[in-house]
Amino acid sequence: MSATGLILDGVLMLLLIGAVAFGIRLERKLAALRNGQAEFAKAVSELNAAAGKAENALMALKSAGRTPICCMTASSRDAS
Fold first, then answer.
1. Where are the alpha helices (DSSP H) in 1-80?
2. Percentage of the chain lying above the pLDDT 90 cut
3. How far apart are CA 46 and CA 68, in angstroms?
């Protein structure tokens, strides 16, 4: 092999090593991103459940506010 061929082979090896190193770094960053996405999805589902509970509580409060005093039980009249 000529000197030029050896130099080009060396340059090619360095470029391939750089590409592999870049690929490894990229894979680690993508794994961290996937993990963060899973945690975000969990937080969103918990928030959705909490919003549903709050909506049900508001509906219960509205219906309790519309109940006439004459129709309340004795224990609920004492509480108010």
1. 3-66, 74-79
2. 68
3. 36
